[in-house]
Amino acid sequence: KRVMLIVAFVALLQPLFALQWASSVLPASNSAARISRTLMAESALIIQNKGGGHGEIGYHLALQLVKEKGMGVTILHEGPNKGKPPHSSYGDLEDAGVKVLWCDDLEDSAACLAKLEGATFRAVVDNWSKSPEAIKPYADTAKSWGVDHYAFISSAGMYTPEKGDYSAITESCPVKASGQRQAEELLARLDLPFTCFRPQYIYGPKQGKSYLSPLFERAIRGKPILVPGDGSQKVTMTHAADNAAMVAAALGNRAAVGEVFNCATSSLITYDEVAALCAKAAGADVAIKHYDPKAFELPKGFFPFRDTPFFVSVDKAAELLGFAPKHVITEDIGWYFSDNFKGATEPDFSADEAVLEALSAKA
């Protein structure tokens, strides 16, 4: 009997020893985070869009959750798979044990969820929805599973700072009633353990396109790169792996539940610096010309960013999640040009010519 009592007592102490060990090997930046990470969900479902910036976030996130957090990951993927980036690199996901289920249309939630064949998950990352109607069936399903975390990758494009306020945008900045914002609000009403992320200007090696194409197009042809205003406007360009790292840091972290985070780098760069980087990457010695954007009616995409400064603060993520970006566009511009810029078709430079002619007339 004495031996049986000792065995039972040791069994009762084992969870306490395990918790003490886990706390000792995890970062000490946030005590709530340390405890919650010992309770990390073992499986995650990523609801994934077709591609682009969000597409690459999903690629990196799946790999990070498997390799760095030991989670089982399934991707419910909007299709079809056309073999383009990032899909052309999905062999990496297969090698890591990530399961990818292709859906014709994620709006047909019943058909897509049926592909799970009854599987349930402790964490869900919605990297697809852009409206409350789109997110609701997946959020309802997640709630029925009793998920520990529902992460929604939204957009920083909803911010509407006061006119003339060009300071770093925080999560408390006013927002417009966009579809993504309404989706965020729905998650709160459903009383899910949610966290929302608002990314801004994403780049990466698996993106398949380049935000900076308009600047590269001019540089490779020896044309002046046209920049609105005086070129001192600041912006952030964030590597998709850093976006993914912030989401991964939040999953299972109780400090992240019910919060919204700007999902970007802390590294700022001016428009003139971006233009100079593009010219250097293209091996071109071209002029940077400034114009008044209000003086011209220019086509969408003429310049890749807003005319005025537009950059977010990630101080909140640094404080609550311990987030620190690992990549900067100033170091990545070389491969970003060589790998992502296609330049297959001849652009229409008539708008450039009109601007340059007006600038010449003023000189």
**What is the terminal-to-terminal distance?**
100 Å
Low-confidence stretches: 1-40
* SS summary, helix count: 13
The sequence of SSEs as H and E is HHEHEHEHEHEHEEHEEEHEEHEHHH
State the helical fraction. 40-55%
Mean pLDDT rating:
89
Q: Major sheet: order of its strands?
A: 3-2-1-4-5-6-11
General form:
globular
What's the story with the biggest beta sheet? 7 strands, parallel
Q: What structural class is derived from the secondary structure elements? A: alpha/beta
How much β-strand is present in the residues? 15-25%
Number of strands: 13
Radius of gyration: 23 Å
Task: Describe the 3D structure.
The protein has helices spanning 2-25, 31-37, 52-69, 91-96, 109-114, 132-145, 179-189, 213-220, 240-250, 271-281, 315-321, 329-340, 350-362, and strands at 43-48, 72-78, 99-103, 123-127, 149-153, 194-199, 202-203, 225-228, 234-235, 238-239, 259-263, 269-270, 288-291. The protein has 363 residues and is of the alpha/beta class. Strands 3-2-1-4-5-6-11 form a seven-stranded parallel β-sheet, with helices on both faces. A two-stranded parallel sheet has the order 7-10. A two-stranded parallel ribbon has the order 8-13. The longest helix is centred in the N-terminal third of the chain and has 24 residues, at 2-25.
Keywords for this entry:
7-stranded parallel β-sheet; two-stranded parallel ribbon; 13 helices; globular; disordered N terminus
Q: What does the secondary structure layout of this molecule look like, with pairings?
A:
Elements: H1 2-25, H2 31-37, E1 43-48, H3 52-69, E2 72-78, H4 91-96, E3 99-103, H5 109-114, E4 123-127, H6 132-145, E5 149-153, H7 179-189, E6 194-199, E7 202-203, H8 213-220, E8 225-228, E9 234-235, E10 238-239, H9 240-250, E11 259-263, E12 269-270, H10 271-281, E13 288-291, H11 315-321, H12 329-340, H13 350-362
Parallel strand pairs: 1-2, 1-4, 2-3, 4-5, 5-6, 6-11, 7-10, 8-13
Antiparallel strand pairs: 9-12
Helix pairs in contact: 3-9, 6-7, 10-12
